[in-house]
Amino acid sequence: MSLINLTNNVAIFSISSLNYISYARTLFGSVKEFHSDDVDMYLLLVDELDGSVDPDSEPFKIIEAKNINISEFETMSFKYDIMELNTAVKPFFIRNLLKAGYKKIIYLDPDIMVFDRLDLALNLLDSHSIVLTPHITMPIHDDLRPSEQDFLKTGIYNLGFIALSNTEESFKLIEWWCLRCGSLCYNEPETGLFVDQKWINYVPGLFESVICFDDLNSISKYQNRYTLLQRPELTDLFELYRDKVLANGYHNSKRHSYKYSKYEDGTIIGPVGRRLYPSFLTEYPDPFSVKGNSYHARLISKGIIEKEARSKNEISNSMTKSGKINILLKIVIKCIGVDRYILLMRYIRWVSVTRRQKFMLE
């Protein structure tokens, strides 16, 4: 039986884990104000229903990500952290919606609120396959953040929104994007990666029938370049959004534990364990297991079981130790010379990507 119930030609969907469902409720509540019966709404849940949410009481259909036929889902749910996995599954679900027969599909991040009908975007899909929206539409000449350089790191286009029509070109994009997100959807600036979003830089060059939706009156840009003291006219808008998120169960939902955050015995999965796993997945097909000769046991044998979280104080203390590290580097450069020091720095830069440190488990 299909999990997708096509009743309209248009699907609007979002993605979240249970700890973000109050935002998703706010999003879909705002969509429903302007599209009461002409779109189908879906939440792709990157988590597992645990009884705390009644899917039948929600105005949108909830589908668990584990059920959308991603062959490598277990591997992805382990090697990616919560943000990475929430973005990695996006093209896979779009593929499901296209195959189900939807003519037009819009994705919106869960922490968005809609204030008008989405006809401008939907109308563009009458003549285009893919609609993107850029982060900025004019040069930035100030010192605020994010900057143009920040967008070089995270991507030119804002993947909090993407729209596609059911065309051959859209399928070409989705098949390519699924491959990239299945293997390389890391938040890893050292290697030029930023989840699903950075890959979309290629889309206008690789695919046809792409349009950039840059109507400044229709799509909000990064408002965190300002404060409410600088833009007091936005206070009512922020308070409206805050009140709706709170009313939609924020305090309860934020306490939800993420299904894929722990091994089967409740031990936290740390970032090093996640990053090293792809090098050993053929040896350990069930990464969450703690039974017998498991991946978890191998990490323990090598002393690589991490703390549940690092506090702000721990991070701050580690930063204060940088002075001692700098002294050590001065000693190193005197011992090995400038030329070898440069080679050492190049190696350190390369090996600083945790995925490249499989030698720790060998």
Integer tally of domains: 2
SSE order? EHEEHHHEHEHEHEEHEHHHHHHH
Shape: globular
Query: What is Rg?
Result: 23 Å
Strands ordered across the widest β-sheet: 3-2-1-4-6-5-9
CATH architecture classification of the largest domain:
Alpha-Beta Complex
State the helical fraction.
25-40%
| Low-confidence residue ranges | none
CATH class of the largest domain: Alpha Beta
What is the number of beta strands? 9
Distance between the termini: 45 Å
Biggest β-sheet strands, sense, barrel: 7 strands, mixed
Strand content: 5-15%
- Average pLDDT reading: 92
Compact description:
With 362 residues, the protein is an alpha/beta fold. The protein is 39% helix and 10% strand. The protein has a seven-stranded mixed sheet with strand order 3-2-1-4-6-5-9, with helices on both faces.
Descriptive overview:
There is one protein chain. With 362 residues, the protein is of the alpha/beta class. The chain folds into 2 domains: 10-252, Spore Coat Polysaccharide Biosynthesis Protein SpsA, Chain A; 262-362, no CATH class. The chain contains 15 helices and 9 strands. The protein has helices spanning 21-34, 73-79, 82-88, 90-100, 119-124, 148-154, 168-183, 203-206, 235-247, 250-253, 271-276, 295-301, 312-320, 322-336, 338-351, and strands spanning 10-16, 40-45, 61-64, 104-108, 130-132, 161-165, 187-188, 193-194, 210-212. The strands form 2 sheets. The protein has a 7-stranded mixed sheet, with helices on both faces. A two-stranded antiparallel sheet has the order 7-8. Strand 1, helix 1 and strand 2 (40-45) form a beta-alpha-beta unit. Helix 1 (21-34) crosses helix 9, helix 4 (90-100) runs antiparallel to helix 7 and helix 14 (322-336) crosses helix 15 (338-351). The protein is globular, with a radius of gyration of 23 Å.
